Amino acid sequence: MKNDTPAAVHPLAVFAATLDWQDVPVPVRRRTEDLLVDWFGSVLAGQGARPVRSIADFALAQGPEAGPCEVLGHARGSAPMAAAMANAAASHVAEQDDVHNGSVFHPAAVVFAPALAVAQQRGASGSDFLAACVAGYEVGIRVGEFLGRSHYRVFHTTATAGTLAAAAAVGRLLRLTPLQMQHAFGSAGTQSAGLWEFLATGADSKQLHTAHAATAGLMAACLAQDGFTGAADIFTGARGLAAGMSTDADPSRLVDGLGTRWATAETSFKWHASCRHTHPAADALLQLMQAHKLQAQDIAEVTCHVHQGALDVLGPVVSPVTVHQSKFSMGTVLALVARFGHAGLGEFDAGFLAPETVALRERVTMVLDAEVDAAYPRRWIGKVTLRTTDGRVLQGRVDEPKGDPGNTLSREEITAKALRLAAYGSPALPADAAAAAVERLWGIEQQPRVGWLLG
Amino acid sequence: MKNDTPAAVHPLAVFAATLDWQDVPVPVRRRTEDLLVDWFGSVLAGQGARPVRSIADFALAQGPEAGPCEVLGHARGSAPMAAAMANAAASHVAEQDDVHNGSVFHPAAVVFAPALAVAQQRGASGSDFLAACVAGYEVGIRVGEFLGRSHYRVFHTTATAGTLAAAAAVGRLLRLTPLQMQHAFGSAGTQSAGLWEFLATGADSKQLHTAHAATAGLMAACLAQDGFTGAADIFTGARGLAAGMSTDADPSRLVDGLGTRWATAETSFKWHASCRHTHPAADALLQLMQAHKLQAQDIAEVTCHVHQGALDVLGPVVSPVTVHQSKFSMGTVLALVARFGHAGLGEFDAGFLAPETVALRERVTMVLDAEVDAAYPRRWIGKVTLRTTDGRVLQGRVDEPKGDPGNTLSREEITAKALRLAAYGSPALPADAAAAAVERLWGIEQQPRVGWLLG
């Protein structure tokens, strides 16, 4: 801890400013690398998507023509703001990036892009970059937990808590003092924004949300380094985040197990290429179909027993017309899982509007389930009731969907997923270049300076 | 109106997208020019302030080294985002920029900077630029009125409604269709942010708020031009602005008198260099002192009868330690007015901590007044009770503080104010350069292309 720390500095700011890579337990370090490789695949898969291209084109037009910060998929660099904006916009669109269940927060989408940009600008070491990312994960997840379920009903937590996560990661790279980190939190929190309203028409805002969080947090940290001050108590002050944007905020969550509980390692990988709220039911359906050797045509009806958040986010999506919307359609996801055993990017693109998919989609409903809702968001239980065409009624259940910490992916699965995602990008990265980049990325901890990920 | 307008496009988006300079009544056109000149002075006064320098340095580091968009006070240009960020940050710090009473919204601070940057980039005509600014004023003010007093209790309306105002102005310059304008509103509204919490410690966030609103709105409009979509109903949707950030939102205010009521012309100029909430009482005190020929040393005690918003914003500021904080101290403002007859930038700098000021400050209190509170925010009534050292108790009252539409500034006063502000900047603009720039600015309507304001 630096000497300038007044007693009043928030412990979360002290933690983020003083976290060293040696403080991070080895299994958490390995998990951080897993999450980084997984994020890299998501960015490559997303960088060609139309809304992402719009944001990247805007970002590049606002930045210098060259610079130290890599804009992934564009074979060029720019200033930190432009690179962070473009890469963060690309992180989330394939809906394959990670998620922390308890906070319903997607840390990779808002942490890695700004941290990478600033690490490349400053020539930070690989381990310093990774430590900064852990700071971002630990802060963002706790802020998400703090803001609670009432917040998530209206606000996209990845967007709002994301500004704090980005500020923590960049602030740690900039070696902010604890007091400066607190100022960065103030400046980040007062830019916290992101409303779910876009879901009603399937608009492009999600990609704007991650871009905004990444750049707002980056700016907050850079300003703090220059002496710019922010609110001292942006979390619980009378006119702070909780006062404005939550009715059930729990301040104890901000400091829950700081330095002993590693929220980074609680983060889940997404196996299906859809909204995480669909995964528990998808896995429960898969489990049932495998156990009973069912085919898609055996399904007469599926009832998903879900938590309220799933109804809120997925409920409005009844007749998806774009592939992105269809990733928020429980019926579409279950139909693809039933037909292909997996709802990956390829399955969505080829099949989300196929007559067989639509027919199955129409036979899927959701109902609120008290047990599932009570366990959420700490545990995402999947429960489905399936009626077969020959009249059987079967109950499926998973307590931990694939990708959750207790049912996690191996490094082979993570590499394979990242390479599938890289191949999905437009233009796709050549397979050997992608494989070489992923291979290099697994060794980033040892790099004296973080270079460009695509060389 | 363009042909692509679906019936469902919000009337406010249709209005902003289709507003022509000829639609604007001549007195409103003249008032728009008044507001522009007044803003120009505020930017020049503010560009050297420490928090503004921090933001400008960050913005310039993120942008190209040269560009078509003027960064005022820096004798250089950059891309639109960097210029809008720096100029918007400078707009509000001197607390001399305009305010719309009914919405408690400072339109100049978030409208002119992004509109100027995009006008310079595109080579827009002076009248087109002015029309875009009117669109920004009309939209931002109505959004502020819509969000209501509950919003203002926690959120800085200039920051939040400011994203919409900036998007409207830039979107109009980009010739967005009404549907694109609605998308721009969605993208702007989902970035709406800005909490009052910074006031508790007098932090620098206000300057970040205007910079953020200007750039978020600019980005939203540019993205919409490229086909990027936003929420269709960001205002009143179930997970939109009102749902997340207001408990008394009134949708009728969004369309109140569109095209017939010109909110632009309702905007007030600030005469004193302090928070607007102090002005009614300051003018009431002045009126009383002039009527009774009182000097500062005749004052034993002043009680200000104020609206709740004044207590909320000014109440926490009891012992200001910086000149910026002192502009939110009712006692300081009244003390300067009593001593010098005016609380301008020079009076604050020289006198905010003078023993005579502090002694008077301590004899000023505020109490909630039912009549003043009921009239607010439509009318900002000033009422004070003054007890003199010889025991008299006097009542002072003004129904419209100086600078309000019914008690507005002449063009001579506006020019003089702008030149005083320009001379206050650091480094100060040479007086002849400032005078020439203001003179040119009065003729901007006739310019075929908006050039650099400082030539």
Automatic annotation (TrEMBL), chains A, B:
Signal peptide: none
Annotated ranges, domain MmgE/PrpD N-terminal: 12-252
Chain ranges passing through the membrane: none
Entries under Pfam families matching the protein: MmgE_PrpD_C, MmgE_PrpD_N
GO terms for MF: lyase activity
Start and end residues of each MmgE/PrpD C-terminal domain: 272-429
Family: Belongs to the PrpD family.
Stated name of the protein: 2-methylcitrate dehydratase PrpD
Organism: Pseudacidovorax intermedius
Species lineage: Bacteria, Pseudomonadati, Pseudomonadota, Betaproteobacteria, Burkholderiales
